[in-house]
Amino acid sequence: MSEIDEVRQEARRNTRGRFEQWAKNPTCAANTLSAVHNVRIDIAARAIGLTPSFGQSPFAIARGNRFEAGLFYDEAARLRAALERKGCLPEGSTGLLDLRLRMNGGTKVTSVDEALQRTEEWLRNLASNPSGASSIVAAPMIKIPRGVILPEALLIIDVIAVQVAEGHARLQVGEIKVFPDRGGHTDPRQLATARAQAGVYKHALTLTVEALGLIEELDIVSTGFLVFTWPGSNSPSVRPDEDLTYQSIRAERGFLRLEEVAQLIVRDDDFSADNPTLIQRVLDADTDYSESCLSFCDLAPRCHQVALGADDPIVLGAEVKRALGNTSLSRAIELLGGATPADNREADLQRQLSEP
Amino acid sequence: MILRTVAQKLQAWDKGAPVARYETLHQAVVPPDQAMVVAFVRMAGESRPWGVAWGVVGAEPRIENVPDGRVRDDVAVLCADFAEGLLTHMRVHNWTYDPVGKSAAAGELRQIWLPNGQHLAMLHQLNYTYSQTKFGGTNQNILQALGRLSGWMFRDCSRTGHQHVVDATRALSSAFAFPAQGARTAHLGYQLAWLETPGERDSRMAAANGAEQLTVSPTMDPSVEREELSDLVESWQAGRREGAPPADAEVGISDVLEEELARRWRLTEKAYQLLANGPIPVNPGVDSLIDQAHSEFWFQHQRIELRQNDPSQGPAFIAHPETDYHGSSAASRYLIHASNDEGYGGHLIHHDPALFSESLADGRAFVVAVEQVANLGSGRSTVPVWVVVLDGEVPNRIRENSRLVPYESRGHQATVTSISVLEDRTELQLEWTTRKTRALSCGIGAKPVDDAWIGEEVAFVLSDAADLTRRRSQRVWAAKDGPGAWLTHGKAPAPLQITYEDDTYDLLVDDITQIAGEPA
Questions:
Q1: Which of B183, B209, B501 sits opposite A234 (nearest CB)?
Q2: Mean pLDDT of all residues belonging to chain B
Q3: Which domain range does residue B276 map to?
Q4: Do residue B366 and residue B304 come from a single domain?
């Protein structure tokens, strides 16, 4: 029990991960409940005897930590050089404000509360006196106001580049990923994920700055930058000027939609419930199985079995489901075999399926 | 096309087993000793291989690995070993006594079979890592050659109709419709279990679900790294730091990696055997694709390798792993790819009725009834003209001046000179332009000018402009003063310096500098 509580507590901090998980299948109530209540799906899957298949390799974690540590080492010399080369910072930029928690490789900040407080101080100072500000800020932590994702939402932004122009601070969010940048051959899904995450940062930073009443003083740039690795090396490869306008809008709409959906399915007593109860709530919730579930949800095998039992065409993929609609697999096969259609819709389906 | 896929999936579900998508394979399958199977594993988060398995079909694979995939020098030695096998197999100049020549026969094709697209991406990683490396000591040359060959193979895979590298998962997906979700059939083990397990649908599905649990990607299951490898690697590294890496840790790591590599290699070999010995024959039109592939290999790789060691043959253009950094080259390559893409279907469709049916549904092929035959030539010239009728309900993409090829009679060609859309039918006037005095190899087999065609039904396929596009690819090089010269003959960006964690660096030299012959 205490172990589950710890896990849940850790997940509670991971607002971004929860949001992205929800966005992968927003029509599934079980997925929504899992995101809202920070009930990890792998834990729910274990509770019904399924073996979770999604996890992280210790080597991948170590590589990520090593890469990130290398970026911020020596006043972020390596990252700074890459950012300057790509025009995200001016030549000769200076200063690193390291807000990383000690447990994440930082040197000064020891707790979440301290990180939140120091991030707020930094934003206020930057608004009142931007000159001399550090040009790179590592891992600022923000709390999203207005109770988005009940009951709280914390975000750690990977990095922010600060430029000062005409007495005004200009903030640009950056997303750090360890995967290799292979130019035009970079995995498009990885790129999309990184952009989406940077969009969440940008939206959250804007919300925070607005809540602090600093929106006139601080300029949150609509573009961001992505930091990847050069294949086979720990050198950063920076992709500058990534337009985050639509990713930010996506995040804004997504948070609002998640809130709306959560209000419909979350019960008042959920927030006082213990973990086993919440896990059971997730397991009992309605599901909406789709092909995308295979990429992230450890409960997918259960949903697949249910779909098989229900003769649901989703077991043959989203394309088949779209084509057949509410027609069951067995009926579609009968129609394909020449059965007499019961109505116009079946007749149309039969004609389409029988075309060469 | 989508509904055809849906119908095939339903048929497969009903049958309880995958069904063939077409009547022929659209990919060459070379004899076993010409097909080398290659599989990689890498440490999660890393780009370089941790281990490689390679060997021709039917023989025991060679499986090599290093204790820690992060140790660059060890990996370089591993890759040099692999390079020797790969370069020899592909008959690359300077690395074999028997290099592939400019006009190689179809039977000389050598293939590399990889488990899936992730392994293909490993070729690109090798290209990045080694094509211009300044490391490797005595192995530097062979590593650079490995990088260049890997890069060519990776790039060539984006060309429609490529034949040298086969992604086994994709090859099976192209050949069969599986009664399962597309996301799941991206797993080679899952596909093979559906194809090879005897019995009914449930037993096949159960076998496929089981096979799916074992990863085929170069990145291993995190639980394997966490539970079986992590401690061993840590202990090996600890020993290494003290100058005595423990042999038992090395053996332990090697055992795990060998098992992982062997599984990936065997699965890929099985995929080869299934296609090579299965019921679906290779499309005879693939021979033309092999000719194109040989030509690509010669001009894009082999000739460059020759020039590497013999500058008197001309400058060696070495493509950057990321992009061309060379406008003319990019434009030319684009047009070559466009040409291959346009021409691909035309090579295959005449030998595959299922492909023809697909084109019928797409409106790229159609059946007409011949109403009139005339010869508009004068004197000794022959200009056969047909008036044909097409069902008005049938979808078609015909425009005036469209060029048509009679189905199963590739080489003949007619141009649509007029189209009259009537109430229930479409009337076309066709003028024969190619092989107009030679008998067609379809239908009644008469010459186009023969009246015997009247009343006959003839199927046609829309022709392509692949040859024209190919010619344009050559003209780009000479367009220095043309309207797009600012793009195709622009200046290349500066070379990039890549720094490693030990403060050493590689310089990625751009190819224009190399062409100009300036020192790197």
A1: B501
A2: 91
A3: 25-308
A4: no
